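Office hours follow-up: a student asked to see two folded examples consecutively, so here they are.
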Amino acid sequence: MRRKNAESTAHGATGRAQRAKRMAQKAFVFAMLSALCAMLYGCAGRRVPAVRDAPQSIRIKGSDTMVFLVQRWAEEFMKGHPGIAVYTEGGGSATGIRALINGTTDICATSRPWQPEEVKELVERQGSLGISILTARDALSIYLHPDNPISNLTLEEIQKIFTSRVTN
């Protein structure tokens, strides 16, 4: 583990780099909202069975990691499509995948790759492989108190800390 020195703390990101990063983040969010809107629009033609003249609805189920993001997307979509109700529910990636396989949800939000057996079962049960769109990446940020003598950690060192192989 590396210790702090005056030179390593003197360097910082420039204002231009920070602005470029914010612009890239905004572009990414716009692209993801556009992709979700396209997906939701494609699902919007379904009607809730057994309820005559019910409003159109879309059901999204899955990852607890993604549930707040999916809820925000649903809210934005419904603003532009007031006749379509979007229902979101967490429960975990496996729950969402199972619901999609069983036909009890329209869209599955998952924060992990599908297992080969899940893909096979989806094709067998629904007759379609479906489509998968990467919408976000999860990350872990680690911040150290300014008085901490350690200024940098490698991924290997972080892994050792979180697996209790390093405790000091």
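And the second, which I mentioned at the end of office hours:
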Amino acid sequence: MSRAVNKWVLMNPGPVNVTPGVRTALTGPDLCHREPEFYKILKDTRRRLLRIFGAEHTHTTAILTGSGSAAVESMLSSYEAGGKILVLSNGVYGERLEDILSRGKKRFETLRAPLGSSSASASSRKSSRPTA
């Protein structure tokens, strides 16, 4: 007897839907981040990323584990160039980006769109929050 499986579609920024192959792989044994096998996978992944971007001889990679929010906060807080960051905001996620940038005293400008619409439909620009 076969059992029907509901396929849920998640409409939020995370977590994400995964393929059946990923779901199957997740049923296997855990791999500790201190094991030699994990180090080998991590080293190979870093090498491949550099090769994909043609940066083997000029850059290195740092793979950070954490949530998507942790990755975004790390990226925004490490920005040091002299220009401004453009935030495309149509809801709470864009507002969170503004909060991260404000706390980090980064220069930014926000292009706002109504909640739930695409940022491409935005027609007004908000000047950046004052930063030190």
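Two things to take away from it. The first strand starts at residue 85 and ends at 89. The chain has four helices and three strands.
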